[in-house]
């Protein structure tokens, strides 16, 4: 399976591969070949196996400039378990149920600010809702002014992360597979040449 087609049409690509090759097949990435599985038992084994035998952090090393050295996605073994335990308490069942009221409140306030009959970009509103819910529920930050101030800083950090991600993608050669005559529609990723390679730059 070619990485370019997977990037452009991930869902249909994986569905086609599963029907053609079965529960196990390979995805050719720019620097490696990855084995994918749609077998529920195999997936369960991966997520419940001893972390000493399955090291996910090494495979995610390309994300280090984006996430930093201490991200749970980049750690293995005892360090991974330690960081994971620090993150889990806010996501226990009872706490998640208590978050529902906050989520509803934030969403209703944001929707109330929309102007009827006037087109607008949905992404900034969805980002604002998500960010405020995280700040209030996970980090316990309250107060409209404080949430707004920290949210602005977080939004700028996300912008910087996009710049770093751009640098990562700059090192990856992407080759879309259009041999089957599939049309690339709106909202698909655009690939343009850059210094002899190709880079994903946005949506059309």
Overview of this structure, please?
With 204 residues, this protein is mostly helical. The protein has a domain at 90-171. The chain has nine helices and four strands; from the N terminus they run H-H-E-E-H-H-H-H-H-H-H-E-E. A two-stranded antiparallel sheet has the order 1-2. It has a two-stranded antiparallel ribbon with strand order 3-4. The protein is globular, with a radius of gyration of 21 Å. Mean pLDDT is 70; it is low at 173-204.
N-C termini distance: 24 Å
Radius of gyration: 21 Å
pLDDT below 50 for ≥5 consecutive residues: which ranges?
173-204
Secondary-structure-based class equals mainly alpha
User: How large is the count of helical segments?
Assistant: 9
- Approximate shape: globular
Mean pLDDT: 70
Helix content: 40-55%
As a percent range, the share of strand residues is 5-15%
- Largest sheet: number of strands, sense, barrel closure: 2 strands, antiparallel
Side-by-side strand order of the widest sheet: 1-2
What is the chain-wise order of helices and strands?
Answer: HHEEHHHHHHHEE
| Total strand segments | 4
Explain the layout of strands and helices.
Layout: H1 3-8, H2 10-21, E1 24-28, E2 33-37, H3 40-48, H4 56-59, H5 64-67, H6 77-87, H7 93-112, H8 122-137, H9 144-169, E3 189-194, E4 197-203
Antiparallel strand pairs: 1-2, 3-4
Helix pairs in contact: 7-8, 8-9
Comma- or semicolon-separated keywords:
9 helices, disordered C terminus, 204 residues, globular, two-stranded antiparallel ribbon, 11% strand, mainly alpha
């Amino acid at each position: 399976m070619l990485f370019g087609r997977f990037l452009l049409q991930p869902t249909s690509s994986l569905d086609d591969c599963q029907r053609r090759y079965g529960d196990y097949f390979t995805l050719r990435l720019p620097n490696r070949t990855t084995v994918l599985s749609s077998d529920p038992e195999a997936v369960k084994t991966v997520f419940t196996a001893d972390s000493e035998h399955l090291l996910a952090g090494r495979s995610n090393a390309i994300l280090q400039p984006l996430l930093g050295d201490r991200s749970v996605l980049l750690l293995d073994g005892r360090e991974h378990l330690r960081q994971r335990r620090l993150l889990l308490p806010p996501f226990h069942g009872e706490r998640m149920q208590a978050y529902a009221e906050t989520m509803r409140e934030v969403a209703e306030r944001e929707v109330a600010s929309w102007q009827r009959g006037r087109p607008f970009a949905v992404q900034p509103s969805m980002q604002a809702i998500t960010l405020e819910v995280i700040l209030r529920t996970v980090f316990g930050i309250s107060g409209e002014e404080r949430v707004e101030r920290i949210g602005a800083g977080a939004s700028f950090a996300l912008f910087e992360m996009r710049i770093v991600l751009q640098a990562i993608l700059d090192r990856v050669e992407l080759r879309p597979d259009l041999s089957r005559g599939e049309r690339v529609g709106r909202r698909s990723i655009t690939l343009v040449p850059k210094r002899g390679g190709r880079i994903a730059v946005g949506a059309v």
